[in-house]
Specification:
5-stranded mixed sheet, single chain, alpha+beta
Amino acid sequence: MTDDEKQTRQRLTWARPTLGACSGVLAGLASLGVAELVSAAVRPQAGPVVAVGGAAIDRTPAALKDWAIRNFGTNDKLVLQLGILVMLALFALTLGIVALRFRRGGAAGVLLFGIVGAVSATGRPDSTSLSDALPSLVGALAGAAVLYVLVGRLARREPSPEPVDGERNGPRPGADWDRRGFVIAATAVATASAGAGVLGRTLNSASGQSAVASRDKVVLPRPASAAEAVPRGAQLRIPGISAFTTPNGDFYRVDTALVVPKVNATTWALRIHGKGVTRPVTLTFDDLLRRELIERDITLTCVSNEVGGPYVGNARWIGVRLADLLAECGVKPPSKGGPADQLVARSVDGMTIGSPVEDVMDGRDALLAVGMNGEPLPFAHGFPVRMVVPGLYGFVSACKWIKDIELTTFASYDPYWVKRGWARRAPIKTESRIDTPKPFARPRTGTVMVAGVAWAQHRGIDKVEIRVDDGPWQAARLAAEDTRDTWRQWSFPWQATKGGHTLTVRATDRTGRVQTDRRTRTIPDGASGWHSVVVTVD
């Protein structure tokens, strides 16, 4: 063998394993592309990435889930899906290399992942049919076939015998597999996979167009009980402070839905049933719009909000009083002899949220909301209908995409978050936040406006105080109050001196309860502690 032939063989020694790994990746792409296409005929949530991601969320320990929200914020779902795709890519690479020696074993590995996806899809709370398994299974079959064919092109062949004239007519040195056939097959697979994926994504997007059209047609009636105008002085004119009313696009979103449900309002219905319900009812969206609507400003807070965190927002909601609906169904709160102390709300994506019946029916403005800041609910915030209950953290009150309300007891049923270690009852804690100056800011000496928001929904804020370093607590100026169900802005003109300083805030609610300095985690019933920022004055 000549030196050139040896060098060629050495190069091709690495080429075959590399192309084997590429075969695994192409098989994975084929699986995902075909699965995406099949999911268009089933439902988008049945796709393997969404199904496995949902199963991962359901089985993630509460502490890890809280860590993800704290570090990735509302991008936690994107990070999860990217992580799943990276794991799939590594798995596919490995299967491709394994398939070079064990061709059937590699293909079987692809089928194994399809089974995992199918089990995850049919095991999701919102799954209602075994057809949810089809995208994963059909995709896996396609991927297994692709891997089997591509690796077959890389199979070593016996060289052809030398002819009589002494010239070789077999493959060139080291080229003992079908390079040309592999390139053709790989190109065809890549093209077909991309086409299937794009077509599937397009069809899935089109499947939600009827829901989009139904939302576009919604005209919210004028509420019978309109909210008072936001009082003058509720919004302070201080750069850096949060807007009193949070725009819909900026409102926080924390939930477990990897794909935002798009529900058609014309086919949506809500069922109310359970213990103490003497007159069960099923309501359509039009039924709700024909009822007396009320409009209220209500601040919502997520239990995953760390001290000083961003998961709190204020909006103007339009909806139906939930207490009135329950009363019409014969429901009585426990204080009046009702047998049910828990209201379990179920979402179209399978989420279950438990709320205390007493709180929902104690006179507060608990709503089945249909509008947010003057427009129909955005899909990301629960269109067509969601629950809004002032004074309770979202995980025990704010069910989005609601489709079912069951009256039951805390003793007989544990909803989604309770099963994962969170509290059964979770009134919102009295908290405050410094919006400006930001941490590690470098303001100049002189008057520096320290400002932010404080909240204690359904109790109201009575006082906010600021402390500079270890000095005494000083009263901040409170902005005008809208209602006790909304947050309240505050400000403090600080005479800043040079050097490093720590600014700390605390609030007192209308019951006289002073915000505690004891730091607690968000689990199980919300974080507590004082918010501080460190600044350096130049």
